[in-house]
Design brief:
Layout: H1 2-20, H2 23-47, H3 51-62, H4 75-113
Helix pairs in contact: 1-4, 2-3, 2-4
């Protein structure tokens, strides 16, 4: 009974694990992670933000959330942010899309097999 209620969760966890075995998904996630890392270091160095603020801004910007509580003040920071947005959003969307494709593919395969929501053995 507990497995039945947790079925969708098992499906997602298994799907994420399967997606991470996909070479394309790993490559895109590494690119997106590298962009976030580079941006974090840049904002730490150029804007003088703490590591957490720099990481937070990098993630919020690349994911298009954009709270607006942190804003680059230097010309270099503003220029870098514009380039980061154009390049980073594409990487982020590609990585998220590849992950979603794998999750959907796995869900369809499980449904066709009749496996439904049971976890892998």
């Amino acid at each position: 009974m507990a497995r039945t209620r947790l079925g969708p969760l098992w499906l997602i966890v298994g799907g994420v694990a399967a997606a991470l075995r996909n070479r394309r998904v790993r490559w895109l996630l590494q690119l997106a992670g590298s962009a976030i890392l580079i941006a974090t270091i840049f904002y730490r160095w150029v804007e003088g933000w703490g590591w957490l603020d720099a990481l937070f801004f990098s993630v919020v910007t690349i994911s298009t959330v954009g709270y607006g509580d942190l804003v680059p003040e230097t010309a270099a920071g503003k220029i870098f942010t514009m380039v980061y947005i154009f390049c980073g959003i594409g990487l982020f969307v590609a990585a998220a899309g590849a992950m979603a494709d794998e999750l959907i593919r796995r869900t369809r395969e499980r449904a066709e097999e009749g496996g439904g929501d049971e976890p892998d053995a």
